Amino acid sequence: MFLKRKIFCTNQLIVLFMLFCANLMFSQKQFDDDDIYKNAAKNLYAHPEKTITVSEYLSINADSDEERSKALNLKAEAQILQGNYIVALNALLESLHLNSENDDSPAVLRTNLILSELYRKLGIIPKAEEKLNFVEEKINHNATENPNKTSLYIDFLTAKSALLYEQKKYDEAIKVFDERLLEIYSHQFQYPISKAYNQLAKTYGIIKQWDDSAKYAGKSLQFSLESGLGENYLAYAELERAKANFGKKNKQQYLSEVHQLLASSEKVYDVVLKKNIHQFLADFYLSEGDNSKYQFHNLKYLELNESIILSQQKASDLILSLTENDLKVKDNQRYKTNHILIWVICFAIIILGLVFWFRFRTKQNYNNYKEYIKKLKNKQQKSQMLVPKTESVEEVSKTPQFIPEKTEQILLEKLLAFENGTNFTKKSLTLQSMAKELDTNTRYLSEIVNKHKQKNFNSYINELRVNYIINKLRNEPAFLNYKISYLAEESGFTSHTSFSTVFKAVTGIPPKEFISFIKKEVSLTH
Question: Residue ranges of the HTH araC/xylS-type domain (predicted)?
């Protein structure tokens, strides 16, 4: 009896310990996901593509509908920046469906706010007003009393002003803002305050009140710098300030800002902002009489404008053909199939193990890749040096001398010239043909290669061919898109299989993976 009781107590302790560990792991995951979300939101304007990837991860791994809705909202904002309006619309409608029973949660209000801005961009003003009215009804009466909703409230004011701006109600768009409120929260919510000041600068600019426009653009720039949003976001304020100084004919100011906007035009990800920058630059160069630069920026503006209009039209057509309720029905049907995930869990565990193994192997291969590239660069630097004098040849020579020193020196010089050429890519190349080409005999050539290259003739030629194609891949980007069979042909191998086998033997990495590492380097440098 005592033994049974002891076993029972022990089992209880084990269960409690497991529950404690599970709770600890769950809490840690929540903290980690929250940090990931904050970093992704901070990098929204600088790296929208990365933000999309992170938001999709958070959406899949969310522990609640609220968390998933936040991730979908973030994804939608990034997609809107890139002009992918249909993808953004679907993400937002899915977010609404998740929280249909909790319509005053911060996530739902944010979803409706983003939807309003999307509808405004698409020119569907009634729907934009409908969403804004919904947000106003839920938030306006207690916004500043709830810190969690204050930031959202400031964004709501900015969205409302933008909608009035779109309707050409410029005086009302300015009166939306309470400057006292903006000042109170300026150091607490730099990001939304910066957007609000930028909207004011834009509105004053359209009615040609340039001094006020420049003032608010300057404030927007100041808060953007303080919040550390980076140059991709600063460009919004820089454009409005440049337009204001251009309108005031303050040439000294706008000339320096034009230089900054030229750099920004290549870096910003917001397609609408990029379009507006090129439009301003086209106007500027036209006023300066620089016809070639005017034509360049005007063409860029027209291309972007056409692309945006096409994307807007597709999204508008989708909205007209499908109501939100239609999409919700489809979502309900899709969510009913989620029970299949139970059957997938076991399989997912196996896949997870394979992923960890693959990541470890990839990391190891990437380190090998970097080491090989480093050795290749060192070898190329050495190959540019003069061939050693006869004395140094004597020093490194540890085998009986069968070749006259002068002949050996001449052969080394010819071998260096051969390596710097491309004759080693000839498929018909043999020890005999190369000896004939270098005006020597096979015994001399074989001994020189063995002695100075520390490998046999076939290995020597194969390594030259592999290094040749690696240099092509690294220095001529077009080669990164060619098939392996073409690379094999280009470097002198008789088949795809022999090329792949030799390439891995020389570098330790299969050619496809090696090429993926080069592509990774290229993307990082750009």
Answer: 423-517
Read off the DSSP letter of residue 478: G
pLDDT-derived band at 341 (thresholds 50, 70, 90) equals low
Q: What residue spans define the domains of the chain?
A: 29-98, 421-524
CATH of domain 421-524: 1.10.10.60
Cα–chain center distance at 313: 26
483: which DSSP letter? -
- Say what the pLDDT of residue 12 is: 58
Burial 83-97 (b: 16+ CB within 10 A, else e): bbbebbbbbbbbbbb
> Which residue shows structure tokens 């934009």?
128
Ordered DSSP codes for 160-204: HHHHHHHTT-HHHHHHT--HHHHHHTTTT-HHHHHHHHHHHHHHH
For helices 190-206 and 231-247, the axis angle rounded to 10 degrees is 30
How far apart, in whole angstroms, are the C-alpha atoms of residue 156 and residue 526? 36
Average pLDDT over residues 60-68: 84
Q: Structure pTM?
A: 0.54
Distance of alpha carbon 390 from alpha carbon 394, whole angstroms: 6
Q: Which ranges in 99-146 belong to alpha helices (H)?
A: 106-121, 125-139
Cα 116 to Cα 160: distance, rounded to the nearest angstrom: 9
The CA distance from 281 to 264, in Å, is 11
* C-alpha span between 312 and 322 (Å, rounded): 15
Q: Which of 178, 222, 228 is nearest to 200 (CA)?
A: 178
* Axis-axis angle for helices 2-42, 48-60 (nearest 10): 160
